[in-house]
Amino acid sequence: MSIAQLAGQQKAKRILQHALRSGKVSHAYLFTGPPGSGRMAMANAFAKALFCTAGGEDACGECLECRKFDHGNQPALHVIEPEGASIKIDQIRDLQRELSYKNIQTERKIYIIKRSEAMTLQAANSLLKFLEEPQSQVVAILLTENGQAVLPTIRSRTQWVPFMPLAPHDMLQLLAQEGVPQLIARAAVYLASGLDACRAITQQNGFAEMRNVVIQLGKDSLTRFTAGMISAQQQIFKTELGDQSELMLSLLVLWYKDMIHFQSGRQEAIVFIDQVEWISKHSYGRSADSYVKCMELALEAGKRIRAHVSPQLAVEQMLIRIQEV
Hints:
Layout: H1 10-22, E1 28-32, H2 39-51, H3 64-70, E2 77-80, H4 89-100, E3 109-113, H5 121-132, E4 138-144, H6 152-155, E5 159-162, H7 168-177, H8 182-191, H9 195-202, H10 207-223, H11 225-236, H12 245-263, H13 276-282, H14 288-306, H15 311-322
Parallel strand pairs: 1-4, 1-5, 2-3, 3-4
Helix pairs in contact: 1-2, 4-5, 7-8, 8-9, 10-11, 10-12, 11-15, 12-14, 14-15
């Protein structure tokens, strides 16, 4: 995948594409940002563009070097990650040894260090000596969740490339590219922050079923209280879904929020987009303040469950109180 094809991270893209376009590529970069922000994907895309023989601000995807990269056959790319809890000095020494060999296929050599903050002090100091005397055709890409946790002397010798948490629509785009169904992905990106967390939710057994149950429970809680109690008992607490009651309540919060979105004319923000027809007919049955209270009750039920209250009792009491607001 090319830099341009990656979702979000416009600032990081500008920094890297300017370097490629101008030919002023730094000898070392520090990609810093939260989990799921796409640092590794960007590192791969940048490395591919650096190897590309077509020139320009991105990889062409067609030259021999691009094709080799896509097939995992680029010997001039080295990726280092922690062995156990840390990156050790022997790993850095092995890397430096590899980079000292001449490669007749390409002049450029690139190494990516994952979780660079996990380097031992000895490993960091060994890398520092390497950064202080950079070889012209060697590019380092250091990845970290927290740039401030990297040794200050290393930070000062790298170009800082910041990564922001991905916006929901950017994560939606990426999940769609990975083949995640739109309705499932849309719920996940509003439940979690970070692509990895979203993937974990979409891969949970029964998540699609949970979403359907929440739709029914959400409708019943607003219009048919008795049916809501029965839905909770039979479809949640008498099934394996009962073990995920907190996730169910988080989805329910999104359901009530959708009512407010529709009232406010923000249909593009609606999570349960397959239920817009029902929402359009029933959302004005309560005020926005009432839906806010419903959301608060769902969040409170989740807190009670975490405080070891029976999930079924917490949900049933929530449903009773929703009738009163």
